[in-house]
C-alpha cells in the first residue's frame, strides 16, 4: 500500500495541485470503483461508463492548477460523473428527436429532381471534405462510416484507445459540420438520414 493511500482527500488535493502523480493515483484508486458503480446504476453501458470516467479523471489531472482547496473531492467527482451522464442523455434525446423529425419530413415528401440533383452534389462535397481531413482522423471516420465499426473495434484494429477513437470521430464531425454548414444545409440533413452508413449523429 502506498503512503498516499493513507492521506485524507484534502492532503491528496494539495499534492495533486503540485503535480504529484502518486496523489492522483491514490485518488483514482480511492474513487474509481464507487464512481463506476454509481454511474452504471444511472447509465448501464459499461463502455460508456468507462469512457466518461476516463474523461473525468483526465480532466481532474489536466485542470489540477484550478483546484479549489475547499473542494469536497467526493462530492465533486460524484457531481462530475452525474453531469456527464446527463449530457449523454441530453444528446441521445436530441438525436432521437432530430432523426424522428427528419424521418417524418422524408416520409411525407417525395424528393423532386432538383432535390435529387442537390443531394448528389452534396454527396460529392461531403466526400471531398472527408478526403481533406487529417490522415488518422479520416481513416477512423471512414472505418466508422464505411465499415460500420464500433469505437472499440476501431481501437483494437489501430491499437489505440476507444477514447482516442471517440475524440477523433467527434473532431471530424465538428470539422465537417462547420465546412458543410454553408452548403445546402437542409439537404445535408436529409442526405445524412437517407444514408444509413454515414453515421454523423
Key features of this structure:
Rna Polymerase Sigma Factor, Chain: A, 9 helices, 201 residues, disordered C terminus
Q: How do you describe this structure in short?
A:
The chain is mainly α and 201 residues long.
Helix content: over 70%
Which shape, going by the Cα principal axes? elongated
From the alpha carbons, calculate the radius of gyration and give it in angstroms.
Answer: 22 Å
Highest-level CATH class of the largest domain: Mainly Alpha
Word description of this protein:
The chain crosses the membrane at residues 176-196. Belongs to the sigma-70 factor family. ECF subfamily. Residues 29-92 form the RNA polymerase sigma-70 region domain. This is RNA polymerase sigma-70 factor. The protein has 201 residues and is an all-alpha fold. It has 2 domains: 3-88, Rna Polymerase Sigma Factor, Chain: A, CATH 1.10.1740.10; 110-194, Orthogonal Bundle (Arc Repressor Mutant, subunit A), CATH 1.10.10.10. Helices cover 75% and strands 0% of the residues. The protein has 9 helices and no strands. It is elongated and about 65 Å long.
Amino acid at each position: 500500500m502506498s503512503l498516499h493511500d493513507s492521506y485524507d482527500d484534502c492532503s491528496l488535493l494539495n499534492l495533486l495541485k503540485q503535480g504529484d502523480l502518486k496523489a492522483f493515483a491514490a485518488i483514482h484508486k480511492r474513487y474509481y470503483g464507487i464512481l463506476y458503480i454509481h454511474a452504471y446504476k444511472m447509465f448501464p453501458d459499461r463502455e460508456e461508463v468507462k469512457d466518461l470516467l476516463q474523461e473525468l479523471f483526465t480532466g481532474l489531472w489536466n485542470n489540477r492548477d484550478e483546484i479549489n482547496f475547499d473542494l469536497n473531492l467526493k462530492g465533486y467527482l460524484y457531481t462530475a460523473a452525474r453531469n456527464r451522464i446527463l449530457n449523454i442523455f441530453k444528446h441521445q434525446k436530441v438525436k432521437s428527436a432530430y432523426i424522428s423529425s427528419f424521418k417524418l419530413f422524408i416520409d411525407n415528401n417525395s424528393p423532386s429532381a432538383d432535390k435529387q440533383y442537390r443531394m448528389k452534389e452534396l454527396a460529392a462535397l461531403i466526400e471531398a471534405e472527408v478526403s481533406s481531413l487529417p490522415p488518422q482522423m479520416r481513416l477512423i471516420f471512414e472505418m466508422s462510416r464505411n465499415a460500420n465499426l464500433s469505437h472499440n473495434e476501431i481501437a483494437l484494429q489501430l491499437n489505440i484507445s476507444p477514447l482516442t477513437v471517440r475524440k477523433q470521430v467527434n473532431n471530424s464531425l465538428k470539422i465537417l459540420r462547420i465546412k458543410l454548414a454553408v452548403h445546402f444545409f437542409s439537404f445535408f440533413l436529409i442526405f445524412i438520414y437517407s444514408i444509413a452508413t454515414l453515421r454523423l449523429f
